[in-house]
Amino acid sequence: MEIVFILFIALAIDLAFGEPHNPWHPVAWLGKLISLETKNMTRSGRSTQLILGTVTVLMTLGAITMPIYLLILHLQEANSLIYVIVAGFLLKFTFSLRGLRQAVATVKGFLAQDNLAKARINLRSLVSRDTTDLDESQLMSATVESAAENSCDSFVAPLFYFLLFGVPGAIAYRIVNTFDAMIGYHEECEHLGKFAARLDDVVNFLPSRITALMIVLAAWICKRNVSQAWRIMLRDHKKTESPNAGWTMSAIAGAFEVQLEKAGHYKLGDNHYSLSLDTIDDSLQMLTMVAIIWSLLSISAEVIYFVAT
Question: How distant, in Å, are the alpha carbons of 88, 133, 225 from that of 269?
Fold first, then answer.
């Protein structure tokens, strides 16, 4: 049952305080570390970049997760209360719900003010694409897409690995995901980031599909088009470059009966309704519902396991 209390603490911290400013955020520290580690690596040859990228990811994983694993192990044996509090605090920094909602709402707010310039700037924190020339419809699409994809990356996936491997598992996931965000699927880091990108694909394989199914369930709870969510998910999930992102994005496109598009790359869903600010509000509602469903499922699974054993 300690797992349940750890999860409660982490969720309470997130909902009450959100994210600390970057200078105090461990993920920001990780980003700076990755930038420092990979600073001059792109000057090397392709094969060398691939080797350096692989070694850097693996060494960073070991250097961070092993001390945390040993700390958790020591606290478990020394004091259960301190263990639960520290573990809950550490777990919080592997996921973000309030911060993600605020980021999406901020972009929506600037769109509501017709301030496309600031909407583009703030959208950069949510997507990896170039936002410089996106028009209003493209900004709306990217915002809804990011809410869907990040419901997995920022919430479901880290808690999935927490349930399987404890706090070190959630931290390991966040490290892999951060490497992917910084050097994976970037043209200038194609070879350096190849291992990080592929590893991120592997670790998100199950969570992305679980999240997509929860979006379908959330569509039913929120009285959206469940049959379309299911149909479009199965039809369009392969259209994205990522083998995982298409699942969540196509599911939400079907649920809202809209078309989500990244120009020159993919179109997901059917254009029955036009994208609007209300669609972004709906995506926030869907994100929240997915988080509630996953939290309840996680707690229920742990309680059942505790009772059964």
Answer: 39, 23, 12
